[in-house]
Amino acid sequence: MKHKLLLALILAATLSACSPKYDWRDYRSNDAPYAVLFPGKPATQTRSIKLDQLNVSMTMTAAEIDGVVFAVGSAQLADAAQVPAAIEAMKTAMVNNIGGTVTASKTTANGAQEIEAGGKGMRLVGRFMAKDRRIYQAVVIGPATNIDAETVDTYLSSFKLY
Q1: Tens digit of each residue's pLDDT (9 = 90 or more) over 97-112
Q2: CA neighbours within 13 Å on the CB side: how many for 8?
């Protein structure tokens, strides 16, 4: 009996030590046509914001793990001609949120703009894109020491428009 109890305790300790930090879950937005994997249970909030001179209603869905926020924001614009300015305003706002500067920037094969920024011990990795009149940002933001490349890649590569 003691051996069974000891075995059960060892097994429980081993399993709890192996519990994943990230609980990746598939999320499909109700307000915009996208899907993404979040590392935990996401929460959604919609609010009015100003992107440069544009007033938009942005819906943010996010999950937080160890002080790192994984978020997707989307907004519908009145005119597709506003997309470039709105994308630039989103990038600027995100970098300003961490008091940072852009350290890397590229355009992906599908036309999304990807940036990395750092400032005051914080790091931001973001992908910004548009489809028709809808703009999107998928970002990872938090203490630089808590953000690893593999997790960022898992999150950003899972983001799909449909």
Answers
A1: 999 999 999 999 989 9
A2: 5
* One-character DSSP codes across 63-95: EEETTEEEEEEEEE-S-GGGHHHHHHHHHHHHH
Of 60, 58, 56, 47, the closest CA to residue 78 belongs to: 56
Nearest to 103 by CA among 113, 90, 117, 85: 117
Which CATH number characterizes residue 118's domain?
3.40.1000.10
Q: How many other CB atoms sit within 10 Å of the CB of residue 137?
A: 23
The pair of structure tokens assigned to 112 is 């999304």
Give burial (CB, 10 Å; 0-12/13-18/19+) of 130. Answer: buried
Q: What is the pTM of this model?
A: 0.86
Report yes or no on 108 lying in a domain.
yes
Flag whether 99 is in a domain: yes
Each residue's pLDDT tens digit, 28-39: 999 999 999 999
- Residue 130 counted as domain residue: yes
> Can you tell me the mean pLDDT for 119-147?
98
Q: Which domain holds residue 98?
A: 21-161
Q: Per the structure, how many domains does the chain have?
A: 1
The answer to whether position 11 is within a domain reads no
